[in-house]
């Protein structure tokens, strides 16, 4: 089933979730590594790959939001307290917003560098949204890194909620994202 239902996420929503989730965690780790390796002659290459994947993350996040907007969202358990429902909505919204913000700040950083990261895997050039400016490049990079850490904190919170639902509440909230939403109660 490709489309979502009120009981479960569809296969496309799950593919977006897992593909983007793994890619974003990989990008956070790769970004940390890039900023902590000693200065090297090929540093531009590593940053360029990071930028190329970042452009893909931005595009796929927007497509994921469009898909989510035209599909039903699985309902939360009726016995879930309202504060948990609100927290879930805030965390999901923040995950989307901060993912887009981090990608946009990276894109702005690319264009503000004298040697930008506009070449998309050598296939074509991504139009840049800023002009070369050293002070702006430093500011965009600093904000990009700061919000990447904010994104990491939101991911940790999301994973903590997943563990709570799966291991403590033993409801099917987490299982729906692996395609087990229609099954009976967790065992």
Number of strands: 2
Based on helices, strands and strand pairing, what is the structural class?
A: mainly alpha
Low-confidence stretches: 183-187
Helices and strands, in order, run as: HHHEEH
Strand neighbour order, sheet with most strands: 1-2
Percentage of residues in strands: under 5%
Number of domains: 1
What's the helix and strand layout?
Layout: H1 11-36, H2 43-69, H3 82-112, E1 119-120, E2 124-125, H4 134-169
Antiparallel strand pairs: 1-2
Could you please describe the fold and organization of this structure?
With 187 residues, the chain is mainly α. The chain contains 4 helices and 2 strands. 19% of the residues are buried. Mean pLDDT is 93; it is low at 183-187. The protein is elongated. It has one domain (42-178). It has helices spanning 11-36, 43-69, 82-112, 134-169; strands at residues 119-120, 124-125. A hairpin with a 3-residue loop joins β1 and β2 (124-125). It has a two-stranded antiparallel sheet.
Salient structural properties:
cell membrane, two-stranded antiparallel ribbon, Di-haem_cyt_TM, membrane
Provide a brief overview of the structure.
Its cofactor is heme b. Belongs to the cytochrome b561 family. With 187 residues, the protein is an all-alpha fold.
């Amino acid at each position: 089933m490709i489309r979502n239902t009120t009981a479960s996420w569809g296969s496309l929503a799950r593919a977006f979730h897992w593909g983007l989730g793994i890619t974003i965690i990989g990008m956070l780790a790769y970004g940390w590594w890039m900023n902590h390796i000693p200065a090297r002659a090929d540093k531009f290459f590593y940053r360029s790959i990071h930028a190329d994947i970042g452009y893909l993350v931005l595009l796929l996040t927007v497509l994921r939001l469009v898909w989510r907007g035209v599909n039903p969202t699985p309902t939360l358990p009726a016995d879930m307290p309202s504060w948990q429902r609100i927290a879930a909505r805030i965390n999901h919204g923040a995950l989307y917003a901060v993912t887009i913000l981090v990608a946009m700040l990276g894109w702005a950083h690319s264009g503000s560098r004298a040697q930008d990261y506009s070449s998309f895997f050598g296939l074509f050039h991504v139009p840049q949204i800023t002009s070369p400016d050293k002070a702006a490049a430093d500011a965009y990079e600093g904000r990009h890194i700061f919000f990447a850490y904010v994104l990491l904190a939101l991911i940790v919170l999301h994973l903590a909620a997943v563990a709570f639902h799966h291991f403590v509440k033993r409801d099917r909230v987490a299982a729906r994202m692996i395609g087990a939403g229609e099954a009976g109660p967790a065992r």
